[in-house]
Amino acid sequence: MDVLAKPDATTRSADRVLGLLRVVCEHDGVKLAEAAKAMGLSPSTALRLLRTLEANGFATKRQDGLYRPGYRMVQLGVEALSHESLVATARPALAALVADTGESAYLSVAAGNGDGLYLAIEEGTHAVRHVNWVGRTFPLADSAAGAVLLGHVPAGTYTAVANAVESDVTAVAAPVLAGPRVVAALSIVAPSYRTDDRAAARLGDLVSARAAALFATA
Question: Which residues belong to any copy of the IclR-ED domain (predicted)?
Answer without folding.
Answer: 72-218
